[in-house]
Amino acid sequence: DFGRSSELAFVVEPSDDIAVQEQPLILYCQVEGIQPITITWRKNGVMILDSENAFMLANGSLYVSRFQRVRGDGSSDEGEYDCMAQNHYGLVVSRKAKIQAATMSDFHIHPQNAVVEEGGVARFQCQIHGLPEPVILWHKNSMPVNTDNERYTLLPKGVLQITGLRAEDSGIFHCVATNIANVKFSREARLTVSGSHSTVYKDPMILVGPENLTLTVHQTAVLECIATGNPRPIVSWSRLDGRPIGVEGIQVLGTGNLMISDLTVQHSGIYVCAANKPGTRVRRTAQGSLVVQAPAEFVQHPQSISRPVGTTAIFTCVAQGEPPPQITWLRNGQILETSDHIKLKNNNSTLSIYGINQADEAIYQCLAENSAGSTQASARLTVLWADGLPSPPQGVRAETVSATTIQVSWEKPLQNTKEIIGYVLHIRKAADPIEMEYQEAVSKSTFQQLVTDLEPSTSYSFYIKAYTSRGASKASEVTVVSTLGEVPAMPSLFIKVINSTTVQATWEPSIKLGQHKGFKLYYRKVHLSQYTGPVLLASNVTAYNITHLDASVVYEVKLLAYNQHGDGNSTVRFVSLRETVERTVLNPPCDCMKDEQNNKTSTTGIIIGIHIGVTCIIFCILFLMFGYRGRLLMCKNVQEQLSTPQIPRSQRSAMGLVLNGTTRRDRDDRDLNGKQLDMNELERLFPASPSQEQQEKGITSAHSPSAPHDETQISTLPLDEFSIIEEQPDPLPKNPRGSTPAAPAPNHGPANEG
């Protein structure tokens, strides 16, 4: 009973057929259901009236006495026929049956003469069009070809293959095409087998590869592949997508033709024929596509249903096929037109009828059709209506309370109110389709309902139904009202300090803001009452730079969104630029060029300092070797860097050379035993150092970014406790600068410490 209405349904439907010229044709149609049932026929959508040539039999079938492809008046009996059945429940239409006349054209490909060497392959072909598809047989020397011979292969499309040719295969060949319309003979072709079997090597070659085929399920496909070569190549088949061909229904005809019986949609694909030289990888390939179509068939049929007035009826009809079928709905045999309360969804697979009434009661049909065929299924909608139901509720009113709330009120029906068990309020946006409607149930003693969670500035429609245990009343009158407008919500605001005079205000767009025209930005110094602004910004702007600010004060920044209903609440942020200014003073910007120059200068100073230190050590050793005896010369714990400032020699002489806190003039006064230290040599090796204060200033300037780029600075390696000790019988006089005099050395030869 799937796909049938019990009140009216088809048992037998007309099917596609090929009719023979001047022969009778019968199209079958059988219906079951509640009598009386009326059956009529249509051809190409036009009603067929009984005539001498075509009339309806008692069982409802259509009889055509003499089928004619073309009549004297130019009309034709070819076309699409369908059967219609009707009773007082409704009307149904059968599937369309395509009727064609049997025909046969002339041969458009005839076999050709061929001369082939012994052991080779011969192929003859003839082609002819006809309905139904002609059966082609081959004759040799006017006798049917012996199909029991394994070397002879006959393919359905009119191909004859002969492999392993022998001298006795020579002869005259022709083909015979036969169908219900006619029998035709092709021209003759001569096959000559020459010479003996050649032993010369020949690469494999495919003479004829597979053609592209489009067939229907359950038919048989033959993919041709004939190859030559010496030695004879091995023919194999595969699918281009790598899927296995399988074994069920698969057969090899002759030496390499692939036949697939009882086709399914899964057999569709591209097939590759390969001719391989035995024992090697030498191969040649050819390919062809196979498309298998499947007529439409139902996966889910529509079911007959009964629904009370005012409710929703839904029919579902799911079909499959290859190519995918198109679905059409009929109502009592007529194409169903959609409207506000009749909707088709899911590629017409679902029919929804909202707020049904008595006029919607009918038989609904689902027609599924593709290029391979069509099918139909039907179902009936029964609309339930009980006597004594309440009349529609009265005086429906809707009042706007806020941007998201509307209050709906009504009065009880005028008639049949005793059995009312409650009311149902139907709510829908006025711009939405009817299927977007939703309901809220209300008790029978309540005559108003507060509808919340609505959208601002939106129109809504409302109507009421009264319900009893036996069904619902008709709908009340529809009332439409709009919610109030709403100002936008608060935006999120972030402040970023760019520099000492500029900050950037940024915010994020959000659907929570609602509909808005743009933003207003204000800012002020916190100790002032007057704002600067508003700065009007478009709704798509998300950042704004505030410039020319005073770094010594704190600023207040305020942002709000606005629309036609007014300004929304603002978001406020405070920002201070003082920390940015302080960071700039403490961390001045880097002068990369100057730092690079200073780095180069420091590296040069280190190298020069190393040379000076090494020279100092060498000369000190020389002094010991020559037995110099004099004053104490000590270089100990040198921590500061030695440099060679560009000071005139006269100035250096005035400053004097300082060794361990003793000037050269003091040492001259204390010269003992006539032994004089060659101060000129020492002065050359150890240039006079500036005073400690000057050294500190020099060091500071060397590391300061303001030091001149062309100033040369020389650093030395520190010498750890290097000293020269000389025998000193008399205590040294007190250092004129107040430093502690050096301890007397023991009276012995020179010694090296450190």
TrEMBL record:
<dbReference type="Pfam" id="PF00041">
    <property type="entry name" value="fn3"/>
</dbReference>
<feature type="region of interest" description="Disordered">
    <location>
        <begin position="643"/>
        <end position="754"/>
    </location>
</feature>
<feature type="compositionally biased region" description="Low complexity">
    <location>
        <begin position="741"/>
        <end position="754"/>
    </location>
</feature>
<dbReference type="InterPro" id="IPR007110">
    <property type="entry name" value="Ig-like_dom"/>
</dbReference>
<feature type="compositionally biased region" description="Basic and acidic residues">
    <location>
        <begin position="663"/>
        <end position="673"/>
    </location>
</feature>
<keyword id="KW-0393">Immunoglobulin domain</keyword>
<feature type="domain" description="Fibronectin type-III">
    <location>
        <begin position="487"/>
        <end position="583"/>
    </location>
</feature>
<keyword id="KW-0325">Glycoprotein</keyword>
<feature type="compositionally biased region" description="Polar residues">
    <location>
        <begin position="689"/>
        <end position="704"/>
    </location>
</feature>
<dbReference type="Pfam" id="PF07679">
    <property type="entry name" value="I-set"/>
</dbReference>
<protein>
    <recommendedName>
        <fullName>Immunoglobulin superfamily DCC subclass member 3</fullName>
    </recommendedName>
</protein>
<feature type="domain" description="Ig-like">
    <location>
        <begin position="295"/>
        <end position="382"/>
    </location>
</feature>
<dbReference type="InterPro" id="IPR003599">
    <property type="entry name" value="Ig_sub"/>
</dbReference>
<keyword id="KW-0677">Repeat</keyword>
<dbReference type="InterPro" id="IPR013098">
    <property type="entry name" value="Ig_I-set"/>
</dbReference>
<dbReference type="InterPro" id="IPR003961">
    <property type="entry name" value="FN3_dom"/>
</dbReference>
<keyword id="KW-0472">Membrane</keyword>
<feature type="domain" description="Fibronectin type-III">
    <location>
        <begin position="392"/>
        <end position="486"/>
    </location>
</feature>
<keyword id="KW-1133">Transmembrane helix</keyword>
<feature type="transmembrane region" description="Helical">
    <location>
        <begin position="606"/>
        <end position="626"/>
    </location>
</feature>
<keyword id="KW-0812">Transmembrane</keyword>
<dbReference type="GO" id="GO:0016020">
    <property type="term" value="C:membrane"/>
</dbReference>
<feature type="compositionally biased region" description="Polar residues">
    <location>
        <begin position="643"/>
        <end position="653"/>
    </location>
</feature>
<dbReference type="InterPro" id="IPR036116">
    <property type="entry name" value="FN3_sf"/>
</dbReference>
<keyword id="KW-1015">Disulfide bond</keyword>
<dbReference type="InterPro" id="IPR013783">
    <property type="entry name" value="Ig-like_fold"/>
</dbReference>
<feature type="domain" description="Ig-like">
    <location>
        <begin position="8"/>
        <end position="100"/>
    </location>
</feature>
<dbReference type="InterPro" id="IPR003598">
    <property type="entry name" value="Ig_sub2"/>
</dbReference>
<comment type="similarity">
    <text>Belongs to the immunoglobulin superfamily. DCC family.</text>
</comment>
<dbReference type="InterPro" id="IPR036179">
    <property type="entry name" value="Ig-like_dom_sf"/>
</dbReference>
<dbReference type="GO" id="GO:0098609">
    <property type="term" value="P:cell-cell adhesion"/>
</dbReference>
<feature type="domain" description="Ig-like">
    <location>
        <begin position="204"/>
        <end position="287"/>
    </location>
</feature>
<feature type="domain" description="Ig-like">
    <location>
        <begin position="105"/>
        <end position="192"/>
    </location>
</feature>
<dbReference type="Pfam" id="PF13927">
    <property type="entry name" value="Ig_3"/>
</dbReference>
<keyword id="KW-0732">Signal</keyword>
